[in-house]
Amino acid sequence: MAVDPRGRDLKDFLESDDGGPVVMLNLLRFKPGGRESYDRYAAAVAERFLPRVGGEILYAGDGRTALVAEDGQAWDAVLIVKYPSREAFSRMVADPEYQQVTRLRTEALEEAVLQPTSPWG
User: Fold this and answer.
1) Predicted TM-score (pTM) of this structure
2) 8 Å CB contact between 53 and 91
3) Which of 28, 35, 61, 107 has the most C-beta neighbours closer than 10 Å?
4) Residue 70 lies inside a defined structural domain of this protein
5) Is 119 within 8 Å of 24 (Cβ atoms)?
6) Is residue 71 domain-resident?
7) How does pLDDT run across 13-38, given as a tens digit for each residue?
8) Per residue in 53-76, pLDDT tens?
9) CB contact burial 30-47 (16+ within 10 A = b; e otherwise)
10) Kindly report the CA angle at 108 between 80 and 98, in degrees rounded to 5?
11) Residue 79 or residue 67, greater confidence
């Protein structure tokens, strides 16, 4: 199951940069007991790394019973995070200090979707 972006994923992400803001949809499925580890990761990102690159959390919430989904498509949590650019996101994930805490995310998650979005119109 996918959890972390791969090198090619990041390259494609940057190559499709239109120079504007990007809103990242995070769909998260935790390993048993993984929520605590993810909470420590999320606190570090919110307190230290997002301010450095001008990012902001627009929404964070727990998943509930899905209204429309196949078996296995429900998610434990959803985050929506806005970055001023794809380059800003890339700078954050390349930061050596960030690299030290991202292991908490990897340890916590069974599966994830990290979907960049752009506004309509």
Assistant:
1) 0.89
2) yes
3) 28
4) no
5) no
6) no
7) 888 878 889 999 999 999 999 999 99
8) 999 999 999 998 888 888 888 899
9) beeebeebbeebbebbee
10) 65
11) 79
Q: Which of 39, 46, 37, 54 is nearest to 89 (CA)?
A: 54
Number of domains observed in the structure of the chain: 1
Host domain of residue 100: 7-63+76-117
Packed helices 86-94 and 7-15: angle between N→C axes, nearest 10 degrees? 150
Establish if 84 belongs to a structural domain: yes
> What's the CATH number where 59 sits?
3.30.70.100
Which residue bears the tokens 């429309």? Answer: 68
Judge whether residue 45 has pLDDT over 80: yes
| Average pLDDT of every residue of the chain | 91
| Mean pLDDT lowest among 25-34, 68-77, 78-87, 88-97 | 68-77
The answer to whether position 21 is within a domain reads yes
- Residue 99: alpha-carbon gap to chain centroid: 14
With beta carbons less than 8 A apart as the criterion, state whether 121 and 23 touch.
no
